Amino acid sequence: MARTAVSRRLNWRIGTVREVRQETPTIRTLVFDIPDWPGHAAGQHIDVRLTAPDGYQAQRSYSIGSAWTDGGTVELTVQKLDDGEVSPYLVDVVEPGDQIELRGPVGGWFVWRPAQTDPVLLIGGGSGVVPLMAMIRQRSLAKTMQPFRLIYSVRTPEDICYADELRRRVRDDGGLDVRYVYTRKTPQGWPDPPKRIDVATLNTYGWPPDFAADTFVCGPTSFVETAADILVALGHDPRRIRTERFGGK
Amino acid sequence: MNVLDGNALAGDLAEIFAVDVTAARFVCAGCGHADAVATLQLFGHAPASVGRCPECTDVVIRLVRADDRVFLDMRGTVRLELPMSGS
Amino acid sequence: MGIISRGFGGRRRESVPGLPPGQYLTYDFPVLSAGPTPRIPLDRWRFTLTTETGAQKSWNWQEFTSLKTEDISTDIHCVTKWSKLGTSWRGVSLDTLFEDVETAADYTMVHSFGGYTTNVPLEDLLDGKAWIAFKFDGEDLDPEHGGPARMLIPHLYFWKSAKWVNGLQMMHDDEPGFWEAAGYHMYGDPWREQRYQGD
After folding, report:
1. Chain C contact for B1, CB < 8 A?
2. CATH fold label, C13-30+45-184
3. Of C36, C80, C197, the CB nearest to B57
4. ipTM greater than 0.85, yes or no?
């Protein structure tokens, strides 16, 4: 028994970048081949460790954006923080063929599994959409039919990550819908002025509390706290709200 | 200084424990608040992290990663409740 | 050490001779924090020195900043491997605060607003080795960096230079503070690379 515990301890492994995709001017997806990857659940993350030639190391945690299929790749979608140390490297420097030390998958709390049958409310701010996208992709892959709704707050239309794929999935994945909230600039003809997520947004576009939805909120700290407080004030069961806070403003 | 949360401790804790501790419920020694370790307010990152109670900000977990050792101070939680599969 | 990440430099830093072992030179002022930044109005600020017998000496902000100040130029060394050279501070020497204080205890616990603590032997605070600083680079000390006032004990790793300092308790025995209880070294001499317990 004790041996099991020891053998399950997590170690660093090496992933090779197969492909990079620019999602927005500041967000990039890195597609990794990781030998013997055990698979992951939607919402889990990966720790990335970088080592400079003089031995200096920096470590950060990033959400996995992809759903897992056997033998597949693992995608990290990373937002560049201007004063960051690791994200500018991942967004601006890394090229296909580069090798990166990774540890994961980790995290078992901010996780959605297709066996969960309740409706799902996803609330993402900025790059907080990444683990939520993994859940949307996982649902599609598992061909399950839980009602899924994403409320996605972005600064401008150009900052929408996965824009084309979300448009396609809303069309093709039955039971998924997406509502955008623009905080700085809206598309032409948008009914609302730019605004931050507020009571009206969540009251109008969220599920009603008696739907007892599994709710996932991810984004910058202030965004997550605002959204979670509003949900509780609207009568949502706090035990059904799972939150993950990202760095950044 | 950005606050992250206990989700970001998952990797360092997974190096130590066979189960995912971020999904465990802590009970704050200061105020009795109970919730998932993932909900702790997190300050700092490797090599030294502090997880604080989101309710009273008392320190619940301190994790210090040295080159060849890890120190985990959990005196701020009076109990950890871990979800286990099966019985 | 892991594989080298092609093209990764990390924050601007240099490995220069003359630094304590394992340290890099930085030009930034990295902020490391174990909790939220307390905002302390100056009219609520107070620093209290408590001896092992319970005798107390206390200064409010006006009294404290009326004491004799010194300008200090010094290198600082953070346990997370940053060193910063030639930083300039203004503060009150601990020698000044300890004038007329009767104590037979050899150790102190430094206390801060927000609950942070760190232990320092008394002899490391005296004879021009430690200050309570309230200016950095000629400006009021920013709350992020410990303002209104922080300890400055440059010959030890910088976690000993407690931010938001508000008191000092004399102790007969050495007891661990916030980070020392979690594995950091009890003394923390950068030149002997005393980062963690047992180093």
Report:
1. yes
2. Sulfite Oxidase; Chain A, domain 2 (3.90.420)
3. C36
4. yes
